[in-house]
Design brief:
With 347 residues, the chain is of the alpha/beta class. 24% of the residues lie in helices and 26% in strands. The strands form four sheets. Strands 3, 4, 5, 8, 9, 16 and 17 form a seven-stranded mixed β-sheet that branches. Helix 8 links the parallel strand 13 and strand 14. Helix 4 packs across helix 5 and helix 4 packs across helix 10. The chain is globular, with a radius of gyration of 20 Å. The protein starts with a strand and ends in a 5-residue tail after the last strand. The protein binds NADP nicotinamide-adenine-dinucleotide phosphate and zinc ion (ZN) (2 copies). One zinc ion binds next to helix 2.
Length: 347
């Protein structure tokens, strides 16, 4: 099946309209007619080559929502017409210890990513900036009716990437959580941590988005550009979720804000290494951690949690021809708070 898509021809050229091939629907596959695709900062890191070699031309996009158009003969989890989503991975080995523990995102063979991975059939996976995608049923999520399609799309990456560490490090009543960077991931981290009952503080570069941050559920809002912030908030958080996409931030200053046994979990994925000073970890017996997306079961749990708590992304819907401008605005931290492509504009 040949379908319309938008692809990056190289690291330096804009994305352009193209067509890509989707495999035939196998017995365990679901064909999804895509409605919306979120623009994640990881799409930009990937196409610009920040993280290494890229199989160009490449169609990115791993915040996908749509409607089931066809199912394979053995499919039991989804039916034609269902509202569904696909996130950052479309398969895994299913045999390793992590897969067997239901943690496919940490598959020891490497999970099959939604784009730029080698698929089971040897082809390169192509992402959601396209009209259709074929995905094996176990990696397709149910999108609750309560969440509009466009606002649900960013939950498939930004939502689960923040929900998973908040759950793992037990954000809840009595915990003090700081979210660094109020972008796509950050704004959902604020909403989710607030819904879990934590006391939430935003640490943004400036106070420009303060009103939004408080409206989204933050209790406090500080600018990291103000040195007084680091004095005032020293040793005061149990958990810091760092969503910043760049390594040019004061990571040791952020570590100094952790209370006894506190953890800074890094979900931001900058191209450059972070210059961690181990002495920043000695005080208060601090931990520095990382976290990658979340499992399929946890992604479903997150979608259901968001529906129950009235949480969804704040989005700016764009036509596919605006995606290159959207990339520049994301890079300039000028997004409130996720661009989502209306895939009808690709049809
Ligand atoms: P985004 O929308 O661009 O948000 C990042 C935010 O970081 C910006 O809005 C900005 O917030 C802040 N920021 C940017 N540059 C900064 C700098 N130099 N110093 C301090 N703060 C800065 O990006 P996103 O889509 O949320 O993604 C964030 C990062 O997470 C990316 O690196 C992405 O690849 C990564 N990611 C990781 C996973 C995972 O599994 N671990 C999954 C998805 C994404 P303020 O304006 O508020 O300062
Ligand atoms: Zn992403
Ligand atoms: Zn595995």
């Amino acid at each position: 099946m040949i379908v319309n898509a938008y692809a990056a021809p190289s690291a330096t050229e804009p994305l352009v309209p193209t067509t890509i091939e989707r495999r035939e629907v196998g017995p365990h596959d679901v064909l999804i007619e895509i409605r919306y695709a979120g623009v994640c900062h990881s799409d930009i890191h990937t196409v610009r080559g920040d993280w290494g070699k890229v199989p160009y031309p490449l169609t990115v996009g791993h915040e996908i929502v749509g409607v089931v158009a066809e199912v394979g003969s053995e499919v039991t989890r989804h039916a034609v017409g269902d509202r569904v989503g696909v996130g950052c991975m479309v398969n895994s080995c299913r045999e390793c210890v992590n897969c067997r523990a239901g943690q496919q995102q940490y598959c020891l063979q490497g999970n099959t990513q939604t784009y730029a991975s080698t698929d089971r059939d040897g082809t390169v996976t192509q992402g959601g900036y396209s009209t259709h995608i074929v995905v094996v049923e176990d990696f397709v999520l149910r999108v609750p009716e309560a969440i509009p399609y466009e606002a649900a799309a960013p939950l498939l990456c930004a939502g689960i990437t923040t929900y998973s560490p908040l759950r793992h490090w037990q954000a809840g009543p009595g915990t003090r959580v700081a979210v660094v960077g109020l972008g796509g991931l950050g704004h959902l981290a604020v909403k989710i941590a607030h819904a879990m009952g934590a006391e939430v503080t935003v640490l943004s570069q400036s106070l420009k988005k303060q009103e939004d941050g408080l409206r989204l559920g933050a209790d406090h809002y500080f600018a990291t550009s103000d040195p007084a912030t680091f004095e005032q908030l020293a040793s005061s958080f149990d958990l810091i979720v760092n969503t910043v996409s760049s390594a040019s931030l004061d990571i040791n200053g952020l570590l100094s804000l952790l209370a006894l046994d506190g953890t800074l979990v890094n979900v931001g994925a900058p191209a450059e290494p972070l210059p961690i000073q181990v002495f920043a970890l000695f005080g208060n017996r601090r931990s520095f951690a990382g976290s990658g997306i979340g499992s399929i079961d946890e992604t479903q749990e997150m979608l259901d949690f968001c529906a129950e708590h009235g949480i969804a992304a704040e989005v700016e819907v764009i036509g596919v021809d605006q995606v290159n401008d959207a990339y520049e605005r994301v890079l300039a931290s000028d997004v409130r708070y996720r661009f989502v492509i209306d895939i009808d504009t690709l049809a």
